[in-house]
Amino acid sequence: MSKRLRSSEVCADCSVPDPSWASVNRGTFICDECCSVHRSLGRHISQVRHLKHTPWPPTLLQMVETLYNNGANSIWEHSLLDPASIMSGRRKANPQDKVHPNKAEFIRAKYQMLAFVHRLPCRDDDSVTAKDLSKQLHSSVRTGNLETCLRLLSLGAQANFFHPEKGNTPLHVASKAGQILQAELLAVYGADPGTQDSSGKTPVDYARQGGHHELAERLVEIQYELTDRLAFYLCGRKPDHKNGQHFIIPQMADSSLDLSELAKAAKKKLQSLNNHLFEELAMDVYDEVDRRETDAVWLATQNHSTLVTETTVVPFLPVNPEYSSTRNQGRQKLARFNAHEFATLVIDILSDAKRRQQGSPLSSSKDNVELILKTTNNQHSIESQDNDQPDYDSVASDEDPDLESTASKANRQKLLGKDAN
Known about the structure:
Strand content: under 5%
Order of helices and strands: EEHEHHHHHHHHHHHHHHHH
Structural class: mainly alpha
């Protein structure tokens, strides 16, 4: 944790002192009990990291600290600051409240239903309102005022909004101005470092052009965040982006198990997915990696006699209402994969992400993600392993030394670092 973090800080949701976790996309620090509720909401609501036991990119932690210290929590509790709220009986949770139902109900109202966020006056055309907010965001990211930008994002501004008149996105503007913390915030809310402006330049290009070298390097890391996270999960190392290496492809220690017909069939189905379905599957696996890693940190840091109960366990990925029921079911099935099965799937995704970035031809097929999950889930009948806290470092180790030099394009492809196929 950063030395700047003061011991006087309290949980944003219940005011317990010395919070151990952060909600990255909300710009708040939270205690263990409230974090157990945040985790059950899903990453689309709250992205949690432990302040001491989770690795942090320095500028990402600095972004969260800056938001917290500048009152970001008031964005999510705006109406509770009104004295009339106290008179009406509406209040935030306190340290003496029980996790369930008291703290849980408050946290869900606060972050999931956005019950206390300041509401804009109603307009007939919501799309115009969102466009206006996005244009305000476009102007605000030139400054260091993070909480203003978070407020705009909370009201519906789009982090990857392409300004029709200026021909660029907020991330282009922040990168040109050297605003690295704004770039971190925008990236958390979905901004793509690979998006090209009307001149064909990316935010990375503008950061380098302006001499903002730390920002340029960080944007490249964000561009490959998904594959970097998967590789680090398996072998504890990340690619050397500075020297043009953008992928590490770990290998199973016992590669003979990967020669089964089922394993080959699963890999073939994965390769036959179109880019959109492949990206969805990769992002779902990324979320499952986050769930498993956060579980490991959670179990290692809790007082097992009091806090670790069935009410604080997140056994599989929470439902995201923006996804189809089929996709949500597939996401939950990922939790059933044992250590070897899940490692195999991760390696296959890393290999195919690299193949797609290099522009290798794709075969055409109607096979879908559900078939891949079903096939991969049944492809190995290895002996029982310690599935509660699997040690993937012993499973995969070899590094792929190939260098990549092409830049990725727009939209959600930033997560895979691919070029157009």
